[in-house]
Each structure stands twice: as C-alpha cells, then as structure tokens.
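// run 5 | inverse folding | seed 20
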C-alpha cells in the first residue's frame, strides 16, 4: 500500500540533513516493532513542495510525504500512530492521509526516483565502495537487493526472473551526497528499470530500489509514461 501524507506549512527552516529524522518519525508512529532493524520491506520519499532558503528548506504552503509498505499491518499501526501524534518536523504536522491505488503493472516498468538510490560493493578488506548510475556493476547490486527482499517477503519463486538496473538513457542523471549520523552516502538520482513477473515489479515499486530504503533512500515514484493514478481519501484529520 502507498500512502501520501499532506503536511501543514513549516514554522522554521528544515535542515538539509532531515531525511534521517523522517525515519525517526516513521518509527515513532509504528511504535515498538521488528521492522526497524530487519530488512526493509518499505520505503519512503523525501518531502516535496519546498524551496531552498536561509537556514535550510522552507515549506510555506506545506508539503507532501509518500510512504509505501508491502505488508498491511505496518500501515494500520502507522495511521494509529499519526492520530496519537501527527507532528513531523519544523512545526509541520499531518493534515490528512491519502491512499494511492497500486497500479496494474506488466513485466517491465521504468520508475522515476523520489530519493537517491544507494548501491554498494563490499571490498576484500571489508570496506564498501559506492557505485553510481554510471557503474554497470551497480545493476548487479540493485538486482541482488531486490531478489533478497522478495525472498524475505515469501516471494522467492519470483526472484530468479526479477531484475533492476539504472536507466542510463536518462540525460539528467546525477549523484547526491547525503550525510546520516556522520556518514556520507553517495546515491544516484536516475530512473530505474524493473523487469520480471508483474507481482515482482509491483513489489519493487513499494519497497524501493537499492540499499538503505529504511533511511529514506531509493523510493520509487510513478512509472514513466503512465497516467497519474487518481487519489482517494483514506483518512481525514484536523491539523
């Protein structure tokens, strides 16, 4: 399931390092759970609707925040948590929650990304190298992570046919460095191509691409060249 949270305007600048703080908000809403330290079968994008200004990002007209979950139980707990405490960051709070219908996918889809995609390769010394959209080896990492998540979700029968790779035909691809808890992570802002059984393509749309999706990386947006799905109200809340 995919949710879109509509947030009230910010009362102060939002620091550029905010994505990791969103993960804290998410788990505050979920409460004590086993999802925080396990393989992330969910993803969330960055706040949309802001502009750069003095001291950080400003959201004078509010923002929207998209979260996606493969399983339904976290969604129920999330909504209950929002009703208990709708605050997010910099004075923003959840004004309403919408659910977006899951599209019917075919065996191939090209997805825009809503946050940088992280792919890393383990070196012989135990360290990790960051692979960007320009590195063909990154495709192996994206595919491996997707297949691992399919297995973890009980969909292992779909894994051998599922692949994911960067769309290198996209001319606007770039990388972005994001600091989380003192560590810099290099991610790629480049569409990804997912191929495989339709159920695997849908799964990828929900759980995201690459590593660290539980920290706000690799969230997938709407498919390229597909009509935007109509939204329907899920819950309405007073700010």
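// decoded
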């Amino acid at each position: 399931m995919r949710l879109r949270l509509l947030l009230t305007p910010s009362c102060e600048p939002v620091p550029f390092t905010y994505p990791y703080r969103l993960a804290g908000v998410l788990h505050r809403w979920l409460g004590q759970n086993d999802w925080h330290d396990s393989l992330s079968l969910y993803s969330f994008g960055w706040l949309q609707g802001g502009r750069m200004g003095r001291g950080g990002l400003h959201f004078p007209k509010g923002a929207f925040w998209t979260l996606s979950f493969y399983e339904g139980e976290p969604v129920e707990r999330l909504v209950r948590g929002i009703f208990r405490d709708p605050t997010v960051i910099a004075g923003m709070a959840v004004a309403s929650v919408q659910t977006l219908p899951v599209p019917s996918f075919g065996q191939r889809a090209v997805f825009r990304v809503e946050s940088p995609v992280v792919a890393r390769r383990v070196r012989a010394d135990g360290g990790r190298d960051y692979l960007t959209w320009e590195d063909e080896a990154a495709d192996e990492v994206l595919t491996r992570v997707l297949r691992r998540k399919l297995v973890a979700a009980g969909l292992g029968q779909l894994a051998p046919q599922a692949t994911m790779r960067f769309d290198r035909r996209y001319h606007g691809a770039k990388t972005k460095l994001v600091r989380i808890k003192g560590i810099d992570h290099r991610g790629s802002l480049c569409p990804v191509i997912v191929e495989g059984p339709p159920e695997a393509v849908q799964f990828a749309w929900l759980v995201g691409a690459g590593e660290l999706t539980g920290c706000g990386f690799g969230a997938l947006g709407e498919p390229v060249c597909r009509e935007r799905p109509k939204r329907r109200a899920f819950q309405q809340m007073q700010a």
